[in-house]
Amino acid sequence: xxxxxxxxxxxxxxxxxxxxxxxxxxxxxxxxxxxxxxxxxxxxxxxxxxxxxxxxxxxxxxxxxxxxxxxxxxxxxxxxxxxxxxxxxxxxxxxxxxxxxxxxxxxxxxxxxxxxxxxxxxxxxxxxxxxxxxxxxxxxxxxxxxxxxxxxxxxxxxxxxxxxxxxxxxxxxxxxxxxxxxxxxxxxxxxxxxxxxxxxxxxxxxxxxxxxxxxxxxxxxxxxxxxxxxxxxxxxxxxxxxxxxxxxxxxxxxxxxxxxxxxxxxxxxxxxxxxxxxxxxxxxxxxxxxxxxxxxxxxxxxxxxxxxxxxxxxxxxxxxxxxxxxxxxxxxxxxxxxxxxxxxxxxxxxxxxxxxxxxxxxxxxxxxxxxxxxxxxxxxxxxxxxxxxxxxxxxxxxxxxxxxxxxxxxxxxxxxxxxxxxxxxxxxxxxxxxxxxxxxxxxxxxxxxxxxxxxxxxxxxxxxxxxxxxxxxxxxxxxxxxxxxxxxxxxxxxxxxxxxxxxxxxxxxxxxxxxxxxxxxxxxxxxxxxxxxxxxxxxxxxxxxxxxxxxxxxxxxxxxxxxxxxxxxxxxxxxxxxxxxxxxxxxxxxxxxxxxxxxxxxxxxxxxxxxxxxxxxxxxxxxxxxxxxxxxxxxxxxxxxxxxx
Length: 645
What we know:
This protein is an alpha/beta fold. Helix content is 46%, strand content 13%. α20 (508-517) links the parallel β14 (500-502) and β15 (522-525). α11 (245-255) packs antiparallel against α14 and α12 packs antiparallel against α13 (292-313).
């Protein structure tokens, strides 16, 4: 892997490299990256993008320091490394110092208020006030010591509390206009990144950089994308906009101070019009220009344009613009942009309506495809390495390559000259694990196919039997919260001596910590557990997957992507639905074997994996476990693992 990464960075050919769990893929790309940086005299910067902030932190605190120590020991040189996150991950001094009622809530210090809240004294408002005061005091301490006020380093807080000390990207005044621009934490983090040769960021910021013409990340000679199987999803999320009546109403009220009565009333009325349009709309994709949502978006767009114009004219001293007015204008501009995008119903976008008991009615607009964006704004600009434990789907790199804009015709062999700047290579470096000896893949061929009415009793009985054989030690991966709860309830009755945790019982981090610490405990959950759960050893000897994780038939974006492939003459089911399922299956099955001493069974209770034609594509995406369709074989193997015959 290190050789292939060095070759890719050297000749500019893009690389997709699959590196299984336990290969040490982080060091596999960090070693050649640091070698390139040192050989260039720190002139060539390398950017590493991870899927999440948590993975970014793990890389920055563990793998990169290890690699830097090694580089220094070998070469005598230690390149600078820096972390770069999105704006909302840093506190905003303008927000903190801008005043507000919470500053006058108490003459007590924040620490005293927190102690009182912990003792049960005071109501929710008091506890929230204490939280915000503690955050504000911490921000000022960070300013004094010239820190970064990074959210990950902040005192314990809620999302609501953090919102009181941070600011949305669109509402930032800009370093030139902000009275605290010379102390700005975001600018300080970007200065550190510009001064570093190795920059660690995340997929979301990579997306923003691509969408804004490369203005967010510092110039770099190479890009390495870790956990690349999540790249398309993360880019899509970053490029998705939401419109709700609440957003329109909050924005309108912020703008009223600077609007005449008629325009202010018009803006407020738009919130009711959007709410009415959403209430009239069925959940699902919107395609008709005459749809109530589209008409409401057109009216909102026109009013928001007038608001932005009115707020932008300003008055008084032009050299000292009103910061609050400037922020209100930015919020109105965001409403305008979203409304215009929905009103256009462009072919490159998918618009849909969602109804939720928690969130209420909302409209969304997302890109139909992000392959073009990645091809033009990422791969055409920088030699890029994509790496993950699951990049080869159905035994081929082509599906993953196509999803990010790399064409099968542009693939070149290792060592061959790359005739095109969009040429790419694929490499599977294998795994240190002997999957056929360490694990069994059991497929319930004789079981019922999954239905929409929850788990069948036959399936529930099989889950209980497998768990009994394993003595707990089970990670249950279910397609829905309802199925997970149904299975947990059944198994708690059938197996009262076993501890079964279910997603929703407590915070997910608390549940996964208990699962890891208590050997005989089992954990059931949904998509949050399919990726990122790393529990080696005897705690996890059975992974149950209730059904093939195809996209939901009511997922407007996935269905639109499938239809677009069909319309272009391709196979939308295989290109979109089956590829999506293969990726998740590979991730889910990968929870079982995390080190060379692990043993266990992956039980897929969906017979379609072996009875349908697409099953071979899905199976070839999984680790090379020994396959059986005999449930008794799986049960006996699990009993032997815990010392029973």
